Structure formats: structure tokens, C-alpha cells
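Input/output pair, single chain:
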Amino acid sequence: MRARSIGLAGTLVVGVALAATWTFRAAGQQNDADAIRQVLQKYVSTINSAEFAKGPRERRAEMLRAYYRPDNSFAKGEAPTFFGPLSEPVSHGLEAHLDNTLLNFEYLFRQKMTYGLRIDETQIETGGGLGAVIALTTSGYASADGKTNYVSHGRATLIFNKMSNGEWRISHEHLELYNAAAPGMMSKQQLTAAVEKLPK
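Output:
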């Protein structure tokens, strides 16, 4: 009878320990998901800010760079591949990705257009220093005279890495926009030529 009691007690201890481990792990994952959600909110606030719209291209790059995993965190000879939300979908390395991103903003801001981005819904999974995000978005831009007013819904997928200092940084990004009335897409060469014709 005593041996059985010890066995039951041992089983209870193991069960409690496993439950505590699961609770601790679940709490950690929730904390990581909340941290990633905060980064996304700051990212959107940065893009929507007047400073971002009015600043020079170099300043915009500096503002965005803080959200991405730097290339130099990879082993020598390696480089991340980013899937950008732009007319040229695949960019190798952070600087190329930022260059593509900023080219699109340059096209809007040189025409004195206002831009806005909103995240409507997110699904975040974390584990092992990685975070996967699926987000539903609404974005749009408008001209001062009101003649151009374009709104699009989209779906974004992002991969985050947890850095050694505890910060979460984007290492992969892809955004698809949906709008039946969307203007024709331009290649990077066409977009660059269009930007160069616009006043700074």
C-alpha cells in the first residue's frame, strides 16, 4: 500500500512539473507574440508618420533599418533572402530590400501623396527564437486634390528572428495587395524612370 502511495505521489509530482513546464512555455510564447505585435505596431506607426513622409530618402532608410535583421548577423558568406512587397519581388540582402521599398515610397511622396497602412488582424506563432506572422492589412494613398484615392486590402507574411539582445527583427517579408481597380504594375526599371521624372 505504501509503495503504491509513493508511486501515485511521484506521478502527481511529474504531472505537476509537466503542467508547470507547459504553462511556462505557453506564457513565454504569448510574451514573444505580444513583443512581435508591438514591433509591428511601431513599424506601422513609423511608416505612417509625418517624419517618414517628409524626410529625405536616407532618413527613411535609417528609420526602417531598425526593424530588420542586419545582414552582418549571418555567418560569413551567407546572406538573407527577402521577399519584398514590391514590383521586383525577390531582393538579396537588407540594403537591396530597403532600396526597393524606398523606391515605391519615393514615387508616392514626390507626388505629394499621403500614405497609410493599417494591420487589421494578425496570427502569430513563436518558438525557438523564430516568429511567423500572417497579417491582414489595409493600405492606401491619396493626392491632395482628392483626384487619386486608392485603397487596397492585403495579406502579409513575415518571419521574425529573436536577436541575442532579445529584440525581434524581420528577416523575411512578403505582402500581397488585392484591388480589382489596381493600377498597372511597373517593373523596377519603369518605376525608377518614373521617379526620376518627378521633382524632389
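Residues 120 and 126 are 20 Å apart (CA to CA). The first strand starts at residue 81 and ends at 83.
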